[in-house]
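Changelog-adjacent note: as of this version, every example in the card shows the full chain rather than a window. The one below runs 488 residues end to end.
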Amino acid sequence: MLDSTLSDNSSCLIFMPARNCELFAAEAIRSVSRQTMDDVFILYVDDASEDQTGEIAQHYLKELFPGRHAYIRNDTRIGKSHNIWKHLRPRADEAEFIGILDADDQLADMTILDKLAQRYGAGKDVVWTNYFMDNGHRGMNAALDPELSPRKQRWSTSHFFSFRAALLKNIPESYYKDQEGNWFQGACDVALALPILDQTRNYEFIPTPAYRYTSSNHLSLHNSTPKVNAITSKIQLQNSNQVFAKPPLPLFTNAKVEESVSMHPPDTTATHSAAPLSTNIWSEKAAQLLIARHPTLLNAQAICGADHLSALQLWSISELLQSASGECLFIGAPDTALILTALAKDTPKIHLTCLVEEKEDAPHLQARLALLGLSEQTKVISGPHAKVEMNQQSCSFPACTELEGLSPLSLIVVDGRASENEEIYTAIALPAVSEHLAERSFHFCALTGEVSTAQKVATSLGQLTVGLEFCTGALGGTGLVCFPANQE
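Full-length structure tokens:
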């Protein structure tokens, strides 16, 4: 069904996909009406809502956007990607640029459309902003490196995303569909943005949090579909991986910046490398600060060997412990567990649990803890080791069945350096403990012998999940730290 009150071409077309959002529909439309820019047309697509979304939307569209809107209702639900192809794409010639506003969200900056129009008037091809959630958390959008394909960088262009309308026509239908030829039902924003970004390097990020994202809508995809873990849902994970796996589109011939794009399969892992700080002056300063903050550490180092972890590695872990609260978990060698216990002793906000393999590891650690008088500081759990496989490789890893009953984990530290396969041991740890993670705020830290190993682990984890930030070299110039992109 179509209720269309078309006007002449507009500078800006706002695409508003809607599905069962009656509680938010009115305010979403009002937020566009408050914009200082008048030359705006709304394309509102009601994807077979089962509540009063359509009636509310039509009322406010007619009242606030007479002659400047089109209302479409699907008889059956088809999903956002199909709606983009079926309803938005045919209107790409009717505007200079297009902005995507989900019908349960809002524009939070009254001047943002004017700001976008200025950028497009100056020749930009894609412009996006930052966002914030209705729970107060700020988004993690950021600028892209124009020297790299967007498919080789982290996902940081979600809301408020806009683009020159002409770019939409160049996206093949197959880019909105999965490997089986079905329309994407999850990761639809990614499915639209990546092929748009493929076509140009002439884009700009506006850091203003101009978009209010309604994370509390229980009918949103991220709230209403089964979770793989605390990070993402199954459908979002599967669809996002398939979106990133598609080859990049060629650069648009009319784009302002001409640049060749590699057609090799994209790297879906978002990584940021921290420059290693290994000079003596920094190591000496870190050692001084560590002893002042953690006097027990010297005794623990004397037992384990002073070179077990560098001063910069220990300082990095100490800083993460300072920002953590509640339950923390270590997995790996007893020597490292002992060092972490010494750090945790002087960090009262946390409680440390160490998971080690059975046989000699648990009693070996218990004896050393007793020698240092730290038996009461740490809970030691031994899990029978089992063979685990990833990417056709295997290693021995302690079973996590004994972790039941733990409070949500705010910090996980893994040391796989003594394993027969360090890379697999480290990469398997995050999915192994995923059901115990704090839902929106945690840090996963991996001690590795080389930065190259950390980079491989980041790549493996990036293929398993979405929504994580990765920083290699963040533990004293080596290792890996990752955390949710929307970290609280």
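Structural remarks: The chain has two domains: 2-245, 271-484.
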